[in-house]
Structure formats: C-alpha cells, structure tokens
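Dear Dr. H.,

I hope your travels went smoothly. While you were away I took the liberty of generating a structure for the chain from your last submission, since the lab meeting agenda had it listed for discussion. I wanted you to have the full record in hand beforehand rather than looking at slides cold. The sequence, exactly as received, is reproduced here:
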Amino acid sequence: MDKAFDPTQVEPRWRARWEELGVGHADASSDRPAFAIALPPPNVTAELHLGHAASFGVQDTLARWHRMLGDEVEWCPGTDHAAIATQNVIERQLAGEGVTKEEIGRAAFDARVVEWYASTGNRIYDQMKALGFTCDWARSRFTLDEPYVRAIRVVFKRLYDDGLIYRGPRIVNWCPRNLSAVSDEEVTWEEHEDTLVELRYPVEGGGSITVATVRPETMLGDTAVAVAPGDPRHRDLVGRTVILPLTGRRVPIIEDEAVEPEFGTGALKVTPGHDATDYEIGARHGLPVLTVISPEGRMDVPELPAFHGLDVVNARTAVTAALREAGVVMGERPYTHEVGHCDRCGEVLEPLVSAQWWVRMAELAAPALAAVEQGRIRFHPERYTASYVSWMRRIRDWCISRQLWLGHAIPVSTCANGHRFAWVDEPMSCPECGDASLTHDPDVLDTWFSSALWPFAIFGWPQDTADLRRFYPTRVLGTGRDIIFLWVARMIMMGLRFTGDIPFSDVLINSTIQAADGSRMSKSKGNGVDPLDMIASYGADAVRAWTAAVGTAGQDMRFDEKRIAAYRTFANKLWNVTRLLLVRLGSADASVIPAPPDVAPADLRVEDRWFLSKLAETVEGVGSAMEQFRFHDAIERLYHAVWDVYCDWYVELVKPRLGSDPTAAWTAVTGLDVLLRLLHPIMPFVTEECAAHLPAAAATLQRRDWPRPPGWWSAPDDAVDAVDELIALAGALRARRQEARVPPREVIEVTLGAGARLLPAADVVRLLEATPMLWARVVDTAPEQATPLRVVAAGAEATLHVATAASASDRAQLEAQRDRVAGRIEQVRGKLRTPGFTEKAPEHVVAGARAELAELEDQLASVERILGEEAA
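The corresponding predicted structure, in token form, is as follows:
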C-alpha cells in the first residue's frame, strides 16, 4: 500500500471492477427478496449538482447495503426529456445564430433536439459513475423512449375515456417567453420591490370606494370591486355600481370571503382574467372574464390605443400616469411582495385564462390520500406527512397541457365532423364516423404527467413483464421536498389507479443544500458548487460521506467544504490503520495480511473483549440508523468507531502485542473487516481497496454479507465496563498532564485511587502504561518532592505526580471540574425532562443521555468527596 490514500489511483480501478463484475445489474429470476428504487430522473441535458449528489448518494448507500443484506437490488436509472429546459436551450442556440424555431421549421427543430440529446445524453450518467453509483445501467430509461411514450398514451386514453381528462378555459400561470402554461408547483416566488397604488373609484349616484393594487394596468379588465362580508366601512356600498376610470365600465360592488380587510383599504379590485384569486371570486359571483393582456405579455386593449401593445411594465407606468392625471390616485407607497417566475426561464409569469387540458383530481386523490393516512406509505422525516395530507385534501384539478414544440404530444384528434377522441396508436380516421380529415391537438403534456408513471412504466407497463412482477412496487423513493406535490403525490395516484398497488412504501425527503451563507445555490449567482470539483479535490468517498452526513438530516444544510475535507482525512486514517496492520502482521513484501488463527472467547484479553463489545454496539447502531434512513447517525457512529475506538484506542493499546499474540492479531483483523463492511455502502472506494489486503478477500465487498456479530461479543462483562472507566481516567490524566505543562515524552508517575482497581492490577497497569500519548508509569507509592494532581473521571480516581506544576492549584482545578460537571448535569437533566426529546429522539440517543447523566453524577460525587476530605 502507498503511504497515503490517493483517490485518483484507487477510484478508476474500482469503477472498472464493479462494471466488470456486473455490480448493480439485477436478476429478475433470482429467489432473493427484491429491493427496488426508481431513480428520480434528472434532466437529460443537466449536470450533476449538490442536490443530485446528496439524493443519489443516499440511494446508492441503500442499494449497496441491501445487496449486502442478501436482497436482489434493482436501482433503475433514467433521464427526463425536460421539455421546457431543453426547448429553451435550443432556442438560445438559434437566437445566437440569428434565427427562430419558427423560421427553421418543426422538422429542423426536432433534428436539433435529437442532436442535442445525443451530445448530452450520457453526461449525467458519467458524472454519477464518478461518484461510484451502482445503478442498473443496462435498464436505463428515457421518457421519450418508444415503450415509455406508449405507456403515457395508454394512461391518457384511459383517463380520457373515464371522463377524468377534459379541456376547458381556466386561469393558468402563463409564461410569456415560452408561450406556455406552467404548473402551480413550477412557479419560483421571488421578492419584488413595487409600488402599492391607491385608486379612488367613483360610485354611481355619489360617493367613492378606494382600492389598493400593485398592478394598476389590470384595472382595465376589472369586472367588480369586492369587500369583506360585514365590513362596516363598506356595508352601505354593497350592491351599488362603480364607474371605472379610463374605461367608463360599470361594475358591481360585491362581498366575498376572499377579501382581507386588513390589506390596503379593505376593498379589492376584481380582475378575473388576470389573477387566480380574482378568477375564483368571479366564478362564485358569475362575473364576466375580460382579457386585457396578450399571451406575449403585452396589453390587448385596441379600444384604448394609448396602452394597446405596451409590455406590462411600461403599461403599468402609463396607466398609473393616466390615473394620476384623472385625479383618482389617492396614494403611492413602496411595497415588497413575492412575484411568480417561471422556474425554467426566469420570466415573470402572467395569470391568464386559457383553454387547456385538465385532470379531475378528486377521484384520483382519494385512494392516494388513504394510502398515506393508513401508513402504507411513510414519509421520512415524518413531518412531511402533514404537508402531503393537507395538499391532497384541498387538491385542485391539474393542468396537464403545455404549448411547446418539444414533449409528448397530447394524443387527441378531432375529425372534420367535430368528433374528438383520444388514441394510443396514431389514427388514420375517426373511429366514430370514419372521416380521415383529422386535426391533432397541438399541445404537449406537462412533463410531470409523464413522470408520474415512472415507477411502473420503467418496468414495461402496460405489458405484464417479468421486471414489473419482480420489482414493482419499489421500496424507497428519495427526492426533495419541493416536488412532493409535483411528483410524489402524482406517482402515488397513478400507481394506485393503473397497477392497483402503491408505487413505493417509503418516501425519503432529502435535505436541501444551501450556499455557505444560507442562500439558494444557483449558477446565475455564481455560488453553485460542482460535486465533480469536490471529487477532484477530496475524492469521491469524502463527498459521499458528506452526503450521508447532510442528506437525511431533515433540515436545510449549508454547504461547508471543511466537512468534506474532514472526511478525506478520515479516509486516510482508515488507509493508514490498514497499512499498519499489513506492516505489523505481514512479511516485508506481503500485499495481503495473513489470516490469524481463530481464537476462543476465553483466549481474549480484556481490551479485546472491550473492543468487540464496542464493535457489536456499532453494528447494531449503524444497522438501526440505516433502517430508519438516518444516514447522518450512521456515518457519525462509524466515524467514532473507526477513529476513536479502533484507531486511537484499541490499535494503540494492542500494538505491543500485535506481532506476538494471535488473539490481538485476530481481534484487530476481524475488527477492521467488520468496520470496512459497515462503512462500505457510504465510502465504497477506500473500503474496497483496504479490504483487498485482508485475508480471503472477496472480489468486491458487494459480495460480502452485512456483519452479524456472534452473541458473545456483546455478553455482559463487568471487566469490559471497567475498561471504559479506565479509558476515561486515562483521558483525564492526559488532559491534566497537558494542563501541568509536562514536556512531551517525559514519563510521569501515577498512583491509583478509589474506583480505579475494577480490573486486575496487572491489566490496569498494562493498559494505563500503553495509553497513547500518556507516557505514564503506575507506581504504588507517591514519589517524594513531587506535586500531586488528583484526577477524577467516570467514578475512578488517580493522582499524577509531577516535578513542577505550572498549572493552577489542584484544589482550583477540582473546583472548576465540579462546577463544569454540575453545569453539564443540569443540561442533561433538562434534556431528559423534555417530552419532545424522550418521545421523539432515537432510543440510542436517549439511552446515551441517561448513561451520560449517571456517569456525571458519579464523577461529581467523587470530586465533592475529595474536596470535602481536603477541607477536613
């Protein structure tokens, strides 16, 4: 082994090895339990970002873990055609060439798209492989593949024939740049600094009513003024008529619950054609819908030539100026509010009434809501269940049509006789009258409609395939909270509707990765971080360990490069301890550690039994954390077990025995083997390379079983507990030595006090004198002419004797320790008195807090006893 771990040398070799061995390819005919994940399909033209790294890293950890558990794992990858994003890319390319898509025509545009997909199609897969992801690449899917397109048409036709898909005019989010409707869930809300303008509308017969708006240009399409029911300021005006300035149109004053009396003047101008809330008010009151803004985002008011054709921003200025001149502007003040933007192109969206295709959601939503409420589908963290349930209970019909050139064509045609019908195979004539003059619908489907079929369509549905029978339903869906409604809910609806079963049983919501300052990462801000840059700097294992630490923490996580660097150091620590064993146990030219002889439990020394008990705890804790999708707990436990327990304590304690004692060699090698297997799903490269040097190494750790320690490792053993206390005492002695400024490597003498002789004296002396960096010699009698410094830890006591003590007095140190321990006791007691902690925290965390409290109370009692003795 090289002196240091070099990811650039190790990673390419193991990527090739996994591919050669077919790691990731599932056998549908095997009799092992199935464990399937449908990879959320990233945009085919996208590049790996930190969100992908965190989400996909967790999924690969699950896949690797379940292979070691003995499951037949199918992690099916795929990509999405990304209609809006891809069309924007192509249109920008064309703009750079001085042409538009309309000028080159549909055929040439389609050819450009095909060329673009071909040039970028494997980019994100290559990046995923760089991180060591073991997807079933042979089963890769693309949402424009012919079988997938057919599945979409089958779903559409069935819903259409069942009366659940209809076409009609309703208000939508309209993108003036893409000239297309956009889903409610695809709106990015951004803060805008605008002006709130108060307008006085004259009331017919005398008087007036004042409204407040940030969009004065839309008053040209007002069809009512609404006030809150019972508002005393406007009670006498309800039922009367307003004469609109500039247009002279007469509109009623109505009452509606949607009006917020605290906002502005408490009176709302109602423009059903250009505001979603106003549209609903208009529907309740039967108001006419006027459209005064065109799909291109320009004013469409030919009867008012001063404003007709202006873009919205300039129209706002012009209309406000005209209203000022008319004397109806009563006030203007700065106003901060959120404005919807197209999340693909960034354009400000316009609410417009448009004829679109819709899905009736109530019938589809009911069973999908029940599946979650009954616990058949679980969200992790659990709090997202409430978000899902709330949205499903107030669900609205879904607009599934988009006015794009790219995407899945809506499979609907109309004949010359007016018969409209849906189809799966493109028709030659009308099935009702036989007319061959067909007009195909020009729109395409919302990308999320096609993605909703993902968990079953990727396995060949609607055909009854072996893959579908074997791997559907999938087990886990890993995704972000921002698409719970866009995608998760719709997959559940479609899965239940078309397969009769849920599409997955667990939904793992990944943390959102933010920039270091807490802001959203974006290319435009220049604060994005490329995971491949992190791999180049620190190695894939370090990035993957970081994704485990932050990916399922259940909250937004700020990016901190130092954490990735720390895991790079951790990988090197693992490498170094493997190399140490190779040197100590192998011959000078050996590349593999020879197999140490098996040992009986009775042969082991107390420190061996202590380490194996810690290892058994680690196996149980890591397994429990993985089962609960708490990968941050898993990596934290492994970090502690590898670095603190194994490297810093056990290996250091047994170094003197490694070359001569078979029990030490057996325990050290066995322990390293177990730790490598535990860590492998998270950090596969370094663990594979280290494991290759162990006895009887497998071709890959993916062919090894998940560790299952024998029961005797964790059997009750008072001596093992005593080692914990002795280690705590050794740590306290080391800290006290540093406080006393004893020169490095100068041997100090130590006498043992109460509680430090729970082990046989020979073991106590041997272990204390072997404690790393303590440089101590245990003596029975305190030396003369030395300063005694008493130490208490975990209920055990000892005194170190130094020639010169430059630290504070012994009593002052003990008093400081007493105060410090007493303060910590109150903190832990407070935590344990909190119901939210004891009821919701993992069992091992609560148990750890209780154990810490007991240890602190013992320590405090010992310190107080010593102080009392000294005072007497």
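Two observations you may find useful: The mean pLDDT is 90. The CA atoms of residues 71 and 237 lie 72 Å apart.

With kind regards,
E. W.
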